[in-house]
Amino acid sequence: MIFDTKAGAPPLQSKYDICVIGSGPAGITLALKLAEGGKRVVLLEAGGRDFTSESQEIYESDNLGFEFQSTDISRLRYLGGTSGHWTGRCLLLDPSDFEVRDDIPLSGWPIGFNDILPYQAEAAEILGVTNFDRGRTPLDDTGILDIVEQRFSSEHKFGNVFGSESRRFGTYYYSALSESKAIDVVLNANLTEFSLDSATGRFAHARYQDYSQNFYEIRADIFILAMGGIENSRFMLQLNEAQNDRFGNQNDMVGRCFMDHLRLPLGVYFITKRLYSNSPNWEFARLLRRIIPQIALSPSPDFARKNKILNGVIRLDRLHRRPLNEKEIGTSEFMRNLRYDSDYFFVGQSIASSEHAPNPDSRVVLTEKLDKFGLKKLGMDVQITPKDIETMRRVALETAEYFVRSGLGRMQVNSAMWEHGSPEDMELDFSMHAMGGLRMTETPETGVVDANCRVHGAQNLYVAGSGVFPTSGMANPTFTIVQLALRLADHLLVRTS
Ligand SMILES: Cc1cc2nc3c(=O)[nH]c(=O)nc-3n(C[C@H](O)[C@H](O)[C@H](O)COP(=O)(O)OP(=O)(O)OC[C@H]3O[C@@H](n4cnc5c(N)ncnc54)[C@H](O)[C@@H]3O)c2cc1C
Description:
The protein has 497 residues and is an alpha/beta fold. It has helices at 25-36, 53-56, 113-116, 120-127, 169-172, 174-179, 231-242, 273-278, 282-288, 301-306, 326-329, 333-336, 386-406, 415-418, 478-495, and strands spanning 2-4, 15-21, 41-44, 61-63, 89-90, 136-138, 145-149, 151-152, 183-187, 190-197, 202-209, 215-225, 256-259, 262-271, 295-299, 312-320, 346-354, 363-370, 376-381, 409-413, 429-430, 435-437, 461-463. Mean pLDDT is 88; it is low at 150-164.
């Protein structure tokens, strides 16, 4: 059933097995899977069925570090969450992303690639991904770069990279939620706090508010925060302020190691006639015919280790059959002298996207301003390290060299990359993939949740979403979010059976 606090107090049960808070891909996956396993679930959602500014404005934040995207634009606060405007690209993390890398402090997950692999097929079904495979193959025998095929979340995506349909969880799963006898959804229900039972040490109630200042309480055996990569951290910071840092914040780790995928336009690439007519490489042949999936090049794990860089990727965006324009030529004499139709035939833009190093100084914090529910507003203190920039630089230069070596064509790498410019001088941007802040670790020394996503120090509080990622890899996060949500559901079904 779906209830809405706008219609009055919802007629809920006195107690549920599990209370999930937040109805994005993580929360809806959990609710459906837990209900399928026989649990009674209540799903609290802060927004309504559609966008409203009264809900969305709670997502506003102050920017305290490197200029970050507006968090009220990069997230959506209504049924289905940010899947309401995601692009639908799905990619798996690499096995090496889970490993400890000696030159990357705080790297390594307490689980491995194989721990979430069993959930791949089910996650693909939930996200509507067709023909999903790992799609990563060595580009040549140097073993330096791998080709990554970006696959998209539905058949519709195959003809069109941007702007076509992606699975919107709020609409796609609306009927399943409203028809479920095991799930009660409450819309316009803003989680504000938990009450702790001091006798048992367990969280007993979740308290939530509607937009008319009415308060409600709901009892459950288990609570799962699924409010998105940033909001889960914000809530956990508030909770710990009231609870003497007992829950995952024993070592001041809540909100720390916040990460996003860094994006940087690198410059232009073009493909020569010889390769156009004579390419030995089917992937490039497909690119030239403009067939999606899009082509992306990534450093191989060996190359990344040897060069002490992070994971990363260069996307070769669409090619155009046209002469280079003034902006693309820039100050390069070489580019100016190239002749369209004899020296080259296709031009495209290349964009680097890098893993963001886990850095305790890159943080989600609370400010002293209060929102309409009396909770402290969000501050984003995002930091960039030299390794983040060096990763994009090395991958860009390696790709440019590969173009020359293989005779594919040429790539003009923006001068900021050559000149070791500071991040502030670059057209650096983020990908709206909020990760970290509530890292998954064996112990509370370096993180917030354990390998089963249970908050360190809590008996019945769990976290779902990309906040738990200890490192960010180069893959878009939602596929992994859904795999982890399915794994958490399995864990809870076994634990509570
Ligand atoms: C423009 C854009 C493009 C993207 N493209 C891609 C892509 O191509 N591939 C990819 O993998 N990822 C992409 N993403 C990221 C993707 O959208 C997120 O990874 C995904 O939505 C996260 O799912 P989630 O369930 O963890 O959080 P969300 O989807 O953010 O859901 C959180 C839910 O919690 C609710 N909530 C918040 N606070 C409260 C509260 N106090 N009480 C109750 N409920 C609350 C919210 O209303 C929301 O419904 C993109 C993001 C953006 C912005």
